[in-house]
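Human: We require from you a standard protein entry with sequence in single-letter code and fold as tokens, and nothing else.

Assistant:
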Amino acid sequence: MDSSQATTMYPWKEIIPRMEEIRAEATDQFIAAWKNAQSRRTHDFTWHETMGYVIVKRDDAARRIVLSPRGPELLKEMGLVFDPGSVSTHPQDPGAADWDIAAAGPAAEAAETRWRPAHARFALRCEPPYLRAFSLEHLALQTTQCLRERRRILKSRLDPDEMLLSISQFPLLGTGTYIDHQGAPNGPLLRSQLLPDICLNSQPPFTLEIGGIVDRRGVVPYTGVPVFRDTNTVWPFVDEDLPADPYKGGILTQSCESNRDSACVMGSSTVATATPSAAAAPADLSANGLPSNAPWDALLNSQPPPPSRPLLLEPPSNKNCVLLDSPLFGIGSGGVLRVTLCAADLDEARSLHDQLAPISAIMAALTAATPIVKGHLVNRDCYWDVQCSTVDDRSAQERGIVPLTTAKGTLLKSRYGSIDMYLGPDETRADPAFRRVYNDCHFTYDKQSFWKMKEDHGIDSLLALHVSRLFVRDIHYASENMLSTGETSSAMSGQEHFKRFLGCSRQNICLYPPNKCTSSGWEVEFMSLEAQLTDAENAAFITFIVLLSRVIISYRLNLYLPISLMDQNMARSQKVNAAGEQLFFFRRDVFGGRDGKSNGSGRISKRANLTPSRNTRPTSASAERGTRGMNCSGVYAKAEYVELSVDEILNGSEAFGVTGILNIIFTYLNTMRLEYDVEQALRRQLLLVKRRASGKLCTLATWMRNFVRTHPEYQNDSVVSQSINYDMLRAMNDIEEGRVAAPELLG
């Protein structure tokens, strides 16, 4: 884009006076999209994936690998013209294509890939040019090839000493020398004592979003990641890179000059004990934010309670944790794998949103790929919680640290996290499988936008609540076009404000309204997958999610469980070897409840004293169940939810009457009368998921942890040195390129 035509961008502090106006316009934009979708034809199911990669540079003589900040340069070489004022790119509806992308083949599709920058200079994102029509043949025979061809195109642009990896986080980011041309930290953009500004993409959307997170919170958010304690780990462990108290570390941001800080007030940054104000004392809400039989005025006058303990009374202790001090540790700095499903209509989108949410923790555990943070083995395998914490922009009021005065309410979660509520069916359609008691967690919503959607325009209460939750947050920046009026504003797609709020709030499952520019329908994005090392692995998990979505709709699966249990599952999924050692709450009978007859009464069966299924390997998870058996004719049969291993959830258990999600998918495939080569290719992809769930294959996190702990230079002190990191990443690159076999990972 010519500099003379560059879009002017405004930071969070400058748009605060207009934030309520922006919220109102965003509400109107959603209402318009909802109304427009009411009269549109039913869409055919389509989908697309989003992949992310990390570029690294190796120094073989020094046995060192660092990040390469050449992402923007590579995109420029590929002809990308990035418009900072655009909300995002989006694949086109396949009906808009002038050629059949499926018939054109993987090479032609990869050549049309939509490449885009990420927040970090060393990371890139990409999507297919068009939404993919649902085709089992394409899933089976072309998905892996498309990913490989896309990677080949990008690799062809790299320097001879550079490598391309699909990893969730660079293991040494934030410690020692970890990026080419590193420079000094404490720059004006990141304001980090660990990361220099060269790490950050200098385009305004990225700099303004990082800055907006820091400014709105009042300080750079600290995140403590527990260290894995090995035999020689110094204990208690103290991270000397950062002061224990960031308020004394020279990174306190200046208060905004405005007397009103939109949905929050920075005020004094002094940490104080929470003293809940009267305004924060709520009614006891459940379900969709209100008691089962409560009138709507109870909802109007209620707020979620202050947390029983503030989520962050003080900066995290540096005892036994590595500390991170920048949002860039969690946003746009690693590889990603996301699957977006474009539903036939809003009803199908709501069903997919709700039914995929309980499976998100299971898939996070199964794709765990981040056991190393800032050069140390950590006591977790997933990066989800770390990501959510590093981008947490809640003010002291919103976190319950100081009394509520001007904030809209106490916010119990970061803007990134698991879903707050199920959407359920709208009020004109009954679904006996959905019960309000499943929405058993508290959240804050914007009352003005809620009532406008519900009372003025007839949007059902659950959907209005879901959308109005977004508007208790602020957007971090706005373009000149967004703030303009008249012809310039009307010429835009009409969803910029609302999309910005959506982009600032990411959950494990996201719902998006129809895209006016691309003619796509209601979309559901599955967010909890971690990027895998090889294209075959990534394709296998893409195939699993796409097929699961079709099975959910075709067989009307009922995967509902209370939100509080799903949150516990997400916490468990982060732990070391969660796929093999953790138990997760899950619905025992996924076919029950659709007739209005519950297959239990909300009873939860803890797995103590329960015999493991015959296909469960002897892990610590199964050991917890004891030796006294109980078959499905006993108390267990009356339980609606039970603690199950990943193996039992996906592969089933005869002993505990669990069908297994993969077995249902295989049954679905058997009804499709597929060509032999297509069926075998799909089964090979699903076999990888099946074997990883059973423990016959390990997760990437387990492979990396084992590599470090068996490395001859490892001192059993939890420290991952430059040379160990070099050998590990070289081995990972060789595995991805097929030069080295990894049967424990890939079979």
